[in-house]
Amino acid sequence: MLHCNISYSDLCEKNMTVAVITHSHCHLHDNGSPHHPECAERLDAINNRMIMSGVDWISRHYDSHCAEREHLLRVHDAEYVERVYATAPTEGHTMLDGDTGMNPHSLDAALHAAGAVVMAVDLVMAGSHKHTFCAIRPPGHHAGRNRAAGFCIFNNVAVGAAHAIEVYGIERVAIIDFDVHHGDGTEEIFSGNDKVMFFSSFQHPFYPFSGADTDVPNIRNLPLPAGTGGAAWREAVEASWLPALREFKPELVMISAGFDSHLEDDMGGFNLVERDYIWITKELCQIAKEFAAGRVVSCLEGGYELSPLGRAVTAHIKELAEFH
């Protein structure tokens, strides 16, 4: 519990604040349907809950920069990047795939989403913050080298990981994805890359119907059945992920934070609740403290039921802020 006699400057000096990175353009992206689950209200729900709970006070907010083409080209094919730029409409809507639309603001939103993760990496590598959260949309973990998918245009976490490797010489990046859907785009991008270890827990069988049969040394998937609750999920994580993470000794911990695994989110069939997200956040912060100088970069993926999304993200950010 933080006491009221601790000043904001004291928090900054003690590195107890979490950086929350977003941009107004992320609100303007529209997939083309008034009932599309990946909507701007998701960010409003997070922001409102942070304010109501007081977590906003232990966060420092940043406006993200745009990702540059060089950032994108580290993980996406040039032809795909050019296609996204060419497809971006000046009016109306276009579709990149059956689920992922673009309006005139979508390209800027996608560039700022990817740029937020680049900025988060810069902040933790500079020591300005140990822990960061990117409140961004569109999400990214389904976007592959040459395709959009599942509401995702650019693979935000992959862009950030590649930036850490290229610019800072990081040799071991761990990416942990606890979305209810398999992070198939991230797996595709980093499969066989010995500088990245990717961990994904997901409902199986379920969209995108991949990952259950992956047999690659740097990929640790946890396909779990519908109805999986916190106890079973934690047991699987403790048995599979935590020993592998400690063996890998990551120099940077990155999180694809998908909250559609929540009990109240009908996008999937997992039954996790806030205490489960607090638990995994604490475990990953501890891994980062042991091996990565505390460096954690978390970025929003799924989560579509607004009330549990706001509560779960706020619990996640609060743990990021208070862990030390």
UniProtKB/TrEMBL annotation:
<dbReference type="GO" id="GO:0040029">
    <property type="term" value="P:epigenetic regulation of gene expression"/>
</dbReference>
<dbReference type="InterPro" id="IPR023801">
    <property type="entry name" value="His_deacetylse_dom"/>
</dbReference>
<comment type="similarity">
    <text>Belongs to the histone deacetylase family.</text>
</comment>
<dbReference type="Pfam" id="PF00850">
    <property type="entry name" value="Hist_deacetyl"/>
</dbReference>
<dbReference type="InterPro" id="IPR023696">
    <property type="entry name" value="Ureohydrolase_dom_sf"/>
</dbReference>
<dbReference type="GO" id="GO:0004407">
    <property type="term" value="F:histone deacetylase activity"/>
</dbReference>
<dbReference type="InterPro" id="IPR000286">
    <property type="entry name" value="HDACs"/>
</dbReference>
<protein>
    <submittedName>
        <fullName>Acetoin utilization deacetylase AcuC</fullName>
    </submittedName>
</protein>
<feature type="domain" description="Histone deacetylase">
    <location>
        <begin position="36"/>
        <end position="320"/>
    </location>
</feature>
<dbReference type="InterPro" id="IPR037138">
    <property type="entry name" value="His_deacetylse_dom_sf"/>
</dbReference>
